[in-house]
Amino acid sequence: MRTVGVEEELLLVDPDSGEPKSLSAAVLARATQDDPGQDVFQKELFGQMLEFATHPQADMADLGAEIVRCRKEASRLAGEIGCAVAALATHPMPVTPSLTVHERYQWMAGQYGMTTQDQLVCGCHAHVSVESDEEGVAVLDRIRPWLPVLLALSANSPFWQGRDTDYVSYRGRVVRRWPQAGPNELFGSAERYHRLVRDMVASGVVLDRGMLYFDARLSASYPTVEIRVADVCLRADTTVLIATLARALVETAAREWRSGRPPLDHSVSLLRLAAWQAARSGLDEDLLDPVSLRPRPAAEVLYALLEHTGEALTDSGDAAGVEEGVATLLRRGNGAHEQRLLMERTGSLRDVVTACVRHTQD
Prior knowledge:
By secondary structure, the protein is α+β, with helices and mostly antiparallel strands. The protein starts with a strand and ends with a helix. It is about 50% helix and about 15% strand. This is Putative glutamate--cysteine ligase 2.
């Protein structure tokens, strides 16, 4: 059974006003004080962000329980220094990001200018184990057209600097301001993948291989495929759904590779359109069908994803849970939908943030 680990980025906010708080250093100091050897919580690009990483898990119930524990622990640590955590992919209110003091982040600020300053966005990264770089690259080639569907499911960033963006995942647009972000052409082999990585680093535009923000990549640190396309999800059960589907996509792609089935040869230009459509309307309107890249109702595309990964989901015992999770999301809506409902009901972005703090803790 392939293992899955999850990294989630959370926002630090004032529990009453909802305003962002640049207190990640204090939260991390408190975490280290409690456990000097802790490696769960990490700093991020800005002081208003806190990241945690789960351990690799083979059982999705265990992964879900660990995500909930990490969120609750992050909430406890933040509460002890007078702030709270919110699983929001962008902060709805006006915010001036505060760059974390670190040589790497200072390099990024100097290299990318305003693009760096605009990146106060929170994602969810799923690491799925692979047996080799060759298998991993074969997986990357075959999961490309399905990644926008994961973005649509996770979409949780409709507001930006105090305004409704008319997108469900504005984070999905912001991260593509990096010159090295987005979908890739087919690699064909691990050798070609690593050659591209070496050439990109040698260009001097990026600092190292960890700064290649592809929608999915080989991890620089672990024997995994790292799927980076999703927003951080408002609710932990959505994160588990994304992780479960990520594993099923990886397993399905690996089986196709072993059987000699070639990947779909979609152009990067069309894959960018599919990602744009997912970020624009998510589950509310059409998505681009991953096979035909033509418009199709979002619900039909979701069930096409379940059919595509059905054998892998059945073999891992996850089919029923994923079907229930998809049905719940179609009924309840993703995080962006919930945020907009909160805004309609309260008329206050502050109230949106404080309600999302409660959802994160729950």
